[in-house]
Amino acid sequence: NPIEGGPAPTPTKPNVSGPTLPPADEADVKNFLSSSGVARSAMDDSDSAHGQALQFLESTGIPVPDTAFSDEGYKYLSTYVLSLLFFSMGGEGWDDDFFFASTPNVCDWTKQKLYTGIFAEIRQEGVICSAGEIIAIELPLNKLSGPLPSELGLMTRLQVLGMAQNLINGNIPEEIGNMSELVIISFENNFLEGNIPASLGNLNKLSTFAVSQNTMDGPIPDSFSGLTALVGLGLDDNNFDGVVTPLGSLPNIRLVYLEDNAFEQTVDDSFLVDAFNTLVHLDISDNKFKGSLPAHFFDGESLLVLDVHGNEFTGPLPEFTQNVKLNFLALHENGFAGPIPNTISNLQGLQHLDMTSNALTEFAPGMSDMVTLEYLFLANNDFNPGPVPDFVRDLTQLRDLSLKDTQRTGEIPTWFGELDNMFYLDLDSNQLGGNIPSEIGDMVSMVFLQLQRNNLMGEIPASFGNLTNFQYIDIENNTLTGNMDVICAIKDSPDSWLVADCGGATPEIECACCTTCCEDVNSESCNELDMLGQLDPIWENGYNRYGLYTFQDFNITGDNDSDGGAA
After folding, report:
1. pLDDT tens for each residue of 303-325
2. For 142-298, where are the E strands, in sequence order?
3. Residue 74 carries which DSSP code?
4. What is the model's pTM?
5. Residue 231 in 3-state DSSP?
6. What is the 3-state secondary structure (H, E, C) of 31-49?
């Protein structure tokens, strides 16, 4: 976020000393603008945004050029367009007016702003010039409102159009396709609607097109196949539909974000096959893609992130070829079936693997070689009944592991204590029995521990007193006995959550500090909490956690009546 009044320079209004020029003749200005592409009728109403921009241009006293094709003519026309932008998009209500429509020289309509956070920096914003040439409009997070004026298309030399995180609505004007020098279009986090103009396919220098988090719809235009310089495409979180075939022929595409739309296409061996030569990030999650997962998705030498979760993929997983680059793979919430191929161990660089909520039946022993894994989510599958798989012991870098509802039997392995990086362990809804091993207390980094809905017995190990970082422990719906004193002794935060079978007239376990006490193993009130560990889309934040759970039917004995949320 920008910090006003921070250490970055905060300039005063530019000095425009010198003789004041007489206003230009209105008729001359109108003739120039109308011959340059501005509708004459739009300027007739002096109270309109067009009329106000006209009046400002006249007031500058800048001589009216003979033509818009000269450098002076282009800058004169741009002064009108930029003034129109200010008056038509609520300039008086902007967080910062950047001296718009206040001085004759548009290159003075700029300031430096300090942004803090992970990527702290000082940015030049407003109208940005180089050697007197207007090259960029940078107005992010500044409360611009209303539709984009079509006259922006007259600024044919502009290279950057950046207006992210504003209140812009309406359609993207077709005329933007006339801005042949554009390299970056950044309109994400607004209220834009309608289709992507086909004219944007004319922008053969465009490297970034970002309209994420708007309300746009319709298909990707076929003309997009002409965007030969495109590197980054952000269409996520809209209502786009149709197929993504036009992206398959882009020779330089590296970053493609299509998640949370309504794209619908059968994926086969030809799907974006050439694009995988250059792709670094591909996110097509939460759409309607179907078919099987092609092997060529894993052949690219540059792909780091592949997220296909929340689609309609079916069938077996492919055999995986050797790949040391891919570090994030999200396959959850599809219909993948059958065993996990042992060749998954060829994905030697994976840090994150999520296969939750599919129909997988067998683990791959070769996963013991995936020693770079930090996040492994395998919950809600149809794995054959059996113990916690031995390969987990070799994954010493694991921070998060979910084996929820995977038909695990036997006892909790004592070797879990060797995984001392573990932050989150989910063994919920299995048939694990025996005592909780004391070695769990060696996992001193543990914050979230879910052992509920199993057949565990005995007392809470004294070693649980080592879990001083815990925020959530759930052991309800087991047959544990004794008391929770060892955990209560370290529960020093009101935000910590502790759930056990400590309710009713004859509690199975005594707990003086539990957030929620369930009455007995047959109680339904404590069994409505269904949590799935997730880190999607953790890669977007440099693997910094921003949330952990998705909640469904969250209702524990009246302690919380919300329908959803994240912790």
Report:
1. 999 999 999 999 999 999 999 99
2. 145-147, 160-162, 167-170, 184-186, 191-194, 208-210, 215-218, 232-234, 239-242, 255-257, 262-263, 266-267, 281-283, 290-291
3. H
4. 0.90
5. coil
6. HHHHHCCCCHHHHCCCCCH
